[in-house]
Specification:
CATH topology of the largest domain: Methane Monooxygenase Hydroxylase, Chain G, domain 1
Number of domains: 3
CATH superfamily of the largest domain: Peptidase M41
Strand order of the largest sheet: 1-3-2
Largest sheet: 3 strands, antiparallel
Protein name: ATP-dependent zinc metalloprotease
CATH architecture of the largest domain: Up-down Bundle
Shape: globular
Organism: Cannabis sativa
Strand content: under 5%
InterPro entries: Peptidase_M41-like
GO molecular function: ATP binding; ATP-dependent peptidase activity; metalloendopeptidase activity
Oligomer: single chain
């Protein structure tokens, strides 16, 4: 996982740090009835649709803001009016959400933040940043005993595992060694082929960050499920902390092309932390939020499976970022910060397990970011 201000990328496995009127409530988006003709609606929203397809965040956001200024009481209704043309079906149901699908290609992360702010102001994202101030609450000293008492898990269960030493990777290694021994026993000498395979694995690990092996292993359902659980943890905590999410990359090859180390990555941004780093300092509260998002993937795995396999790069990024504090954290302070962040994220995920499950299912179905966020909001609204 690479850290590059102002973007914060967080990855998962062996992974990586990186919007006439009906009744209205603060928990539901406003809904308004269209006063334009069907033809004008289709024409006006065609430009927006094209911007979304081009992943043009600036263009899509400009359209929404301009339309809001011209017609503040006008958005697409949930149902066509008066049985109007079926073409309107293409434009019903809150098209504003789709602006989030353009964030991944955005170079200006302030635009990403503006997209989330725009949707929140309009009532679409009532839970975005809802728990931002949780970092100011509760005791700061979290010992291993406190962590176990609160979660029921030993500290070792939150430690990412080395490949081949535990869990599914250990079974894979045992199966490989067993198969190799069997073939040799049968008199089948494939050592030249084995040497070639090991050579390719070394090249993949050294120069490609292991993305080729990650691509192959991601096709194994249990392993891919863990990746989804891990990334959904990053995504949900970032959302609840009010950190705009640029996107979630689940394809290892695409992650490598985008400069994300590991098998997957969730890219988010914390403006306060970015500004602090630019000024050569790092505010404790912003660092706390960052750490919670960073350790959320490990916390999600521990919550669902009882232990964590992924997150080694998350821990490495935490250590590197800790050195940016003035004064830098000691080893004991780093350990306490990690346990505190894990506990905070673990509890938030536990309290909102339905939202986390909804995010996992949406990612598993390869839904767009806008749909994933909608599913989170829907799940949280049913928990009330």
């Amino acid at each position: 996982m690479a850290f590059a201000s102002p973007s914060l990328d967080v990855g998962a496995f062996s992974p990586t740090f990186f919007l006439s009127k009906h009744s209205y409530s603060p928990h539901k988006p406003r809904q308004w009835r269209i006063i334009s003709t069907p033809t004008s609606v289709l024409r006006e929203w065609k430009d927006y649709e094209d911007a979304v397809k081009r992943k043009d965040l600036a263009g899509a956001l400009k359209f929404l803001k301009t339309r809001e200024e011209k017609s503040p009481n006008l958005v697409i209704p949930l149902q066509p009016l008066n049985g109007s043309s079926s073409k309107l079906d293409l434009f019903v149901s809150e098209r504003d959400w789709e602006v989030l699908d353009t964030c991944l290609n955005a170079d200006d992360l302030r635009l990403v933040a503006n997209a989330y702010a725009f949707l929140k102001d309009r009532g679409f994202l009532p839970n975005f940043g809802k728990f931002r101030n949780i970092v100011l609450e509760g005791p700061r000293n979290v010992t291993p005993t406190v962590l176990k008492t609160s979660t029921g898990l030993e500290v070792s269960k939150f430690a990412p595992k080395k490949w081949g030493l535990s869990g599914t990777s250990q079974l894979t290694l045992i199966a490989f060694l067993g198969g190799t021994s069997f073939l040799l026993y049968q008199g089948i000498d494939f050592r030249p082929n084995l040497a070639a395979v090991l050579g390719l694995a070394f090249v993949d690990s050294t120069f490609l960050g292991g993305c080729c092996l990650a691509q192959l292993s991601s096709y194994w359902p249990p392993h891919r499920r863990r990746i989804l659980v891990h990334e959904a943890g990053h995504l949900l905590i970032a959302y609840l902390m009010g950190c705009p999410i640029r996107g979630v990359i689940l394809d290892p090859i695409v992650a490598m092309q985008m400069g994300i180390q590991g098998q997957a990555g969730t890219q988010f941004w914390d403006e306060k932390m970015s500004n602090d780093l630019t000024e050569g300092r790092l505010d404790g509260t912003a660092f706390d939020r960052y750490c919670m998002v960073l350790f959320a993937g490990i916390a999600a795995e521990a919550l669902i499976y009882g232990d964590a396999e992924g997150g080694e790069n998350d821990e490495n990024l935490f250590r590197r970022t800790s050195t940016l504090l003035q004064p830098p954290l000691s080893v004991a302070e780093m350990s306490n910060q990690a346990r505190w962040s894990l506990l905070q994220s673990y509890n938030l995920l536990k309290w909102h397990k339905h939202a986390h499950r909804a995010a996992v299912k949406a990612l598993e179905s390869r839904c767009s970011l806008s749909v994933v966020i909608q599913r989170i909001e829907d799940a949280m609204s049913t928990d009330r």
